[in-house]
Amino acid sequence: MYPHFLGLPFLHTYGVMMAAGFLLAWTLVERVFKRPELSNLAMALIFSGIVGSRLAYVIEHWQAEFAAHPITALYVFQGGLMFYGGFILAALVFFAWCLINRQSPLALADLLTVVVPLAHAFGRVGCFCYGCCYGRVSDSPWAVTFPVGSPQYCAAGGVQLPVLPTQLFEAAALLALFALLLVVYLKYRRYTAGIYLMGYAVIRFGLEYLRGDPRAAVGPFSISQTISIAMLAAGALFLGYELASDRRRG
After folding, report:
1. Band of the pLDDT at 13, cuts 50, 70, 90?
2. Cα(74)–Cα(76) distance, integer angstroms
3. What are phi and psi of 156, to 5 degrees?
4. 3-7, 113-117, 125-129, 189-193 — which is least confidently predicted?
5. If you ran DSSP here, which 8-state letter would residue 32 be given?
6. What pLDDT, on a 0 to 100 scale, did the predictor assign at position 10?
7. Phi-psi region of 191 (alpha: psi -120 to 50; beta: other; left: phi over 0)
8. d(CA 222, CA 107)
9. Coil, strand, or helix at residue 221?
């Protein structure tokens, strides 16, 4: 756990990793895919993604973390983001931007979703450095023990326990998904939005069973698993629509 980048107390590793992920993702869009005109959209999506992620996290963990000190809800640099909250708000901003600028949402979604898992992977490494989003207690050789003062230590009532590094598991899965999307996009310039939605839904749904931090439930599933089911269905619709369109044209 390295909450401060290079040991500097004013520079949080979580924020540095997020910034690095966004910068690398945008560099790919601008230089590899040659779409620099999308810079305003990219900034809007980054901002809305951070706001939505923080808002969802605060709502889910209000009583446990923020009710006693509400001002800490603004301390985004300390970690505590819920990806699906940011994804939903960014998606709304994305569709609004496409409507205003008369752009094809699906064509742009196919491009932008290629780099989303890359940026997300960096964010998960930031989660690991901060100590949030940790896994279940485990005696596995993969287990790690976070230090005194970490979110796991506080949640366990001041006890250090070996837990699964689910942050790193997800980061590795996201990098694999990014590699797949990049290959598909460079070859077809299509299909990646649907593949991303379905791929991440499966990744997140499965990893939720390994998470050990507090999780709000919706029936037998966590909130994230419930959203994953909807995301899987949306991805299937996206992919099915593009495949059907290709068959009609062919």
Report:
1. confident
2. 6
3. -90, 10
4. 3-7
5. I
6. 64
7. left
8. 32
9. strand
Give yes or no for a contact between 126 and 13, defined as CB atoms under 8 angstroms apart.
yes
pLDDT given for residue 231 in this prediction: 96
pLDDT tens for 20-69 read 999 999 899 888 888 888 888 988 998 999 898 888 888 877 877 787 87
Q: How far is 182 from 205, CA to CA, in rounded Å?
A: 23
Q: Return the exposure string of 85-109: e unless at least 16 CB atoms fall within 10 Å of the residue's CB, then b.
A: bbbbbbbebbeebbeeeeeeeeebb
| Closest to 66 in 3D by CA, of 218, 225, 214, 222 | 214
Residue with tokens 């694999």: 176
Q: Which pair of tokens denotes residue 187?
A: 């070859």
* Amino acid occupying residue 19: A
pLDDT tens digits along 218-247: 899 999 999 999 999 999 999 999 999 888
**Rounded distance between C-alpha atoms, residue 231 and residue 37, angstroms:** 28
pTM for the full model? 0.89
Task: Confirm if 138 and 132 have CB atoms less than 8 A apart.
Answer: no
Q: 208-220 in b/e burial notation, b at 16+ Cβ within 10 A?
A: bebbbbeeeeeee
Sequence spans of domains, the chain: 5-249
Distance of CA 250 to the CA centre of its chain: 36
